[in-house]
Amino acid sequence: MKKLIYTLMLILAGILTAYPQRMLPGKKGLEINAGILPGDAPKSNYYLNGTMTVNGKNGNYQLWALEYSRQHFHYKDHSIPQETYSAEAGYSFFILGDISRNIALNTSVTALAGYESINKGETNLFDGAELLSGDNFIYGGGLRLSLEIYLSDYLVLVLQARLKALWGTDLERLRPSTGAGLRFNL
Q: What pTM value is reported for the model?
């Protein structure tokens, strides 16, 4: 009789598989991202981002982020740097993924505020020309489409495409970017 019970238990254990418990509500994660902004020189047009996530229900999550971005604009033979420091808060919605949450496609809607510095605050250029654009406080919103690939229960590879709409800036209002990052779920 014991052999029959053990055999049935082994058969049931082989049939019923346990899935990892990912995206549990209330679970937090820390994410580091880097990416490129459009421009002539991808090495000098980049962003760095640190994000904290808090999981909600059904694969959705809240996100809070701090970001630094640097972009160069060409003027004659020189480049004029633009640096942006911003804070972002938003919500990410689960769109598509497999049942075990190995791969997930999410879209996020965010609001942001920050500060933008053009040419390190200097309005005079090397040839005597004067910049009409200056340092500004900026605000706006953003959209993000992210593909999240779980490498383990705690480590997630995040590939993303983003678009930000900014007001209060003298430069481009729509700023697209692409990037990759790692999230560590706590």
A: 0.81
